[in-house]
């Protein structure tokens, strides 16, 4: 938990520094945005910040829709996620000519929706233990 908080705080600080530096250099909104989108290190920092925001959104939506996850659900999610990330990396090699921020955003959305589909599937498949009725 502490490591996650440090990564989030570091990402926020780094993003703030990059945007402030770009604004300091260009002094206007539009040239600042152009500078940020044309600079590879700036885009990398913005991608990291976007990943952090997607992670936070996923945690929030998971709490809202599923509450506390059971250990089995978490294990299934992590196991399936590794396969999905591997498939995504292979897809990136096939579609490397179309690699753009929009493309990355759509693949991130795909992984996000897959994770929630798997969690919903695990919840539907879960059968709570039956309790025997009390006889008075």
Automatic annotation (TrEMBL):
Keywords of this entry: Membrane, Metal-binding, Transferase, Transmembrane, Transmembrane helix, Zinc, Zinc-finger
CC annotations in GO: endomembrane system
Localization terms from the record: Membrane
Domain E3 ubiquitin-protein ligase synoviolin-like TPR repeats: 5-126
Keyword ATP-binding: no
GO molecular function: ubiquitin protein ligase activity; zinc ion binding
Name used for this protein in its record: Synoviolin 1
Gene behind this protein: SYVN1
